[in-house]
Structure formats: structure tokens, C-alpha cells
Specification:
The chain has 219 residues and is mostly helical. Strands 1-2-3 form a three-stranded antiparallel β-sheet. A two-stranded antiparallel sheet has the order 4-5. It contains ten helices and five strands; from the N terminus they run ααββαβααββααααα. It starts with 5 loop residues before the first helix and ends with a helix. A hairpin with a 2-residue loop joins strand 1 (46-49) and strand 2 (52-55).
């Protein structure tokens, strides 16, 4: 099996294994977009400078959900604010679930809630890749191992989207949050990726905090 993308890893962590229901939707949607942006930077398709994202190579990567995100950014580019680029990249969500289905990691189930409202769920079909993913995250966050570039990027996205409870259920929140912050702010990645992560994480935090505050206020 080819390596999972950051967006696929975020999606796996966000889906309930048994019911297939999505959890922490607001944070997940933005983490997916951030994951797509970081992947495009890693692949040399996009560069981030300050709060701007610039497409430097519009050629497809051959990964459908990432190519969809790249095309959506190019449509409004070639240069735009990082937040706008991430808003465009949120289209990656549908393609990510389709990719997980094609890989045989989840299956699609359509049903009706209360016999009236149609919903689609994605319960687990093959748990091995998610087990490996959680083991890799646990090694760096819970045991203190040094992360590689991709794992450090994923931790930063999880932290920004406040998905720590999904990634590390039952663990001490303070210790987890402290270690995730250390990794997110550490020098584990090349400068070009560092810029993308910093911008994406800041935007995700701002959006998720704003959304949480609005929900608490009943807006």
C-alpha cells in the first residue's frame, strides 16, 4: 500500500471505527485542508511566504484528492492568501473519503436517521493502517521519540484543530498538549514546510476557537 497522505491520516483519526460517524467536524475539515496544503508544499507545487500561498507548479501529482485541491487553488491563484487557499482546499474532504474506500480502509454505508434523514457513514474495514498511524503518533507524543517531517506536520495539524482527544483518547491532556506544542514548534521540518505549517496551524486554531465560541454562545 502506498503511503497515506496527511489528509487521509486526519480523516482516519476523525472517523468512529464502529459507526463510521465523523467526529469534531469543524476542526477536521480545516485540518484536512491544512494537510492538503502541506502536502502540496512537500511536493513542490505550492510555496508559502508570510501569509501568501503561491502555486509554482500546477502539474498534477497523480493523487486525485490532492490534485482536486491543487486545481481549486490554481483556479483562484496563482497567488492568494493562505486562508483563502485553505478554504479552496476544503474540497479535499470528499476525495479523501473516496480514497480511503478505494484503499479498502473504510466502507461506505448509507442509511436514514429516524427513517427520514439520509446520512452516509464510513465504518472501518481494515484497521491495520490506523493502528500503525496511532502507534507512530504515540511514539513521538507519548514516548518522546523524535518525529520525522510528516509526523511532525500531522501533530501540528491535530493540535491546531483540537483533535488531541481523538488521537490520544484517555491520555493526560496536559502532557499530551505540552508535547504536541513542543513538536509543532520544533525544528523537525525544512523551512519551506515550516512556513506552511505555521500559517495553517494559526488559521486552524483561529477558526476552530471562533467556531467553538460561537457554538457556546448559541450563535
Amino acid at each position: 500500500m502506498t503511503r497515506l497522505t496527511l489528509a487521509e491520516e486526519v480523516m482516519l483519526l476523525s472517523l468512529d471505527d464502529d459507526s463510521g460517524a465523523a467526529k469534531a467536524k469543524d476542526g477536521t475539515h480545516w485540518a484536512l485542508a491544512g494537510g492538503a496544503l502541506v502536502e502540496l508544499v512537500l511536493a513542490g507545487r505550492v510555496e508559502v511566504e508570510d501569509d501568501r500561498a503561491k502555486v509554482v507548479d500546477a502539474s498534477p501529482l497523480g493523487v486525485p484528492h490532492l490534485d482536486t485541491a491543487l486545481a481549486a487553488i490554481v483556479e483562484k491563484g496563482p497567488e492568494l492568501k493562505v486562508k483563502k487557499a485553505m478554504e479552496r482546499a476544503k474540497c479535499v474532504r470528499e476525495g479523501t473519503t473516496e480514497s480511503l474506500i478505494a484503499r479498502g480502509l473504510v466502507r461506505e454505508e448509507k442509511k436514514k436517521v429516524l427513517g427520514l434523514f439520509p446520512v452516509t457513514r464510513y465504518p472501518e474495514a481494515d484497521g491495520a493502517p490506523e493502528e500503525e498511524l496511532r502507534a507512530r503518533l504515540g511514539a513521538v507524543v507519548l514516548r518522546g521519540d523524535d518525529p520525522d517531517e510528516r509526523t511532525a506536520s500531522l501533530v501540528a495539524l491535530i493540535r491546531g484543530a483540537k483533535l488531541g482527544k481523538l488521537a490520544f483518547p484517555g491520555e493526560d491532556r496536559r502532557k499530551v498538549d505540552s508535547r504536541m506544542e513542543e513538536i509543532a514548534k520544533g525544528q523537525w521540518v525544512q523551512p519551506a514546510v515550516r512556513r506552511a505549517i505555521d500559517q495553517a496551524e494559526a488559521i486552524i486554531i483561529a477558526v476552530v476557537v471562533s467556531s467553538t465560541g460561537a457554538g457556546a454562545a448559541g450563535i
